[in-house]
Amino acid sequence: MQRFRPSAPPITLSAKAIQELDQTRFMPPSQRRISLQVAKTLGMDQEARSSLERVRQLAKSGKVAIAGQLMPDAGVSAELAALGVTEQVEMADFPRFRTVVIPYCGITARQRRDWEPFAKSLEDLSCTQVRRAQVALGLLRMEGAQGLVIGRHEDPESIALAGSHPANRIIQDTSDTARLGFAPAFGVICQTTLSSTRVEWLVQQLRHRWRDARVTFLNTISPTWVAREAALENLLATCDQVVIVGNLGEASCESLAETALRRGKTATIVAGPEQLDRAAFRADRRVALTAGAFATDAAIRAVAEALVS
Fold this sequence. Notes:
CATH topology of the largest domain: Cobalt-precorrin-4 Transmethylase, domain 1
Structural class: alpha/beta
Number of helices: 11
Distance between the termini: 61 Å
Number of strands: 11
Shape: flat
CATH class of the largest domain: Alpha Beta
CATH architecture of the largest domain: 3-Layer(aba) Sandwich
Radius of gyration: 25 Å
Order of helices and strands: HEHEHEHEHEHEHEHEHEHEEH
């Protein structure tokens, strides 16, 4: 007589999922690493690199001071300190140095006039896009408009843009637009490293707040920043989370984080690999790597190697 042999129970979807998880848990670490996707455009542009290289050359020929911070990045400041370059120098101390450098974020025309008699040599390394934005705001003011700068209140670049005239105002959010007094015409520019979506939103709010005023907006966002934002956008559809190399609070890093968050992706800003929280990056995650406008190549490379190790 043939003995009855019960067939194996069918593999349900839940059982299959548990089985796959068990297999993944015991896979060798090399097969469960993070999948890293690097943005095609990230970090410093060519002008920022040239400015940093110029300071390196100046440091070889004598004492160099920066009238402020050359770039808002801890990695850049550390490199300058290693070269003997002093940042955040006050005007009264200018005569102690062979060369005084105007920082990348720029200064106002009044500051330049005040500084020239004190500095033996004044080297202008301000960004071309910042100078362009200053000229644009000046032209709008010549037409009789109230000058407005869409930017961050404490950012040196926004301060340099708005500081050309005491009546200019910095607009960071909708609460700033609500506090504005009426003017027949508003002339608006923006910080060069802001999210284009944020800028467009605030311009719309201005027009909605003062419907009987003329609002003229000149878009002064840097083309390089637009390329960084677009490069990150291209990765957001296929990544799980985003790592941004740069300094927390720096405008371009915060803007990249806004871009990621609008697509529902977690964004982490780190200055270096020591700030990475390994517990936040599970195996087999797809991570998009980008960097702010002033992140050094060394910092980007170190973070990338830490993520895939």
